[in-house]
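User: Fold this; tokens only.

Assistant: Input:
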Amino acid sequence: MFLVPVAFTLVLAVSDPSPSEGGVIRGRVVNGSRNDTPCGQTEVILRAQVEGEFAPVAQTVTDLEGNYQFAGLPVGAEYLYLPGANRDEIHYPGRRVGLTSSHPTAYVTLEVRDALAESCPLVIRRHEVVLGTEPDAVHVAESLLVHNPTAATYVGRAATADGVPVTLRLNIPSDFERVTFEKERFGREFQVVHGQLVTGMPWLPGQQWLKFTYTLRSRSGTRAWQRTLDAPCEAIRVRVEHEPAGEVACNLPPVAGGPPEELVYQSVGAPLAAGHEIRVQLGRTPVSWPVRLRWAAAIVLFGLVAAAAFAVRRDRRSPAAGKGPWSSARRGRPRPAVSLD
């Protein structure tokens, strides 16, 4: 066993526990992708709660049968441990463990998985979208139930040799304002690359909700929401709040019988393919008085210019403009010949 942080090492030194007196955490590492076969020679990390956060305090390697053990650990209500195993550069945490003088030993089985890099298996089981409208903005809340149906952890593959793997892209509008994730860990995992939210986080087998919000500002006089699906989607529902029915258009079928303050649209039939585009048009944006005044000034100016042009054209066609000895010549017509009789 190898102890890492100095602070925790000092605690061990002060307590001076011996293996017979201290607590013990032991168990086995198994591969869940291969019917829980034991994983020999696998690195196991033990974390302990230090100042409210879990920090590594010890590490070891399993034997050929996948067994591991941490002995001589301090016991007491103030100590909380979290063992986990590493495989293919992915850390798989186990359950949290508390050791007391009456229960100084715990057995924890740690499950790891094979890694899948090719052919993204992710499927969106449900995609919920709520659009809240304001005169100059659309507030969007999205919830995606992301499912990895395989027995392996999806890790993706980098597009270039020096690049990083991308496991999921969120194809939200590129002019979004700050995105807020419901769970902090997702906020740490996603980053903006070329105006697009991407992540290289590994996706373990099973389902998990991905929820986030963002805002779109209207800059062109219209309010709209448009995005392509990130993965094959079995069902998507879009709810538009506080907007007149006659001013909303969506390329999904409408759903009748919803709340009176909402308009609901939902996919039906077969799942939608990745890249399928969903569009919601929310009508014209109410124009503010300063913009209306600028438009009015432009219209008045255009009217004055048009009136002046019309007046000039009328003067050129007036008979009075043709008086004078050279008027016919100026208009390009020959003057009549003068008779000498």
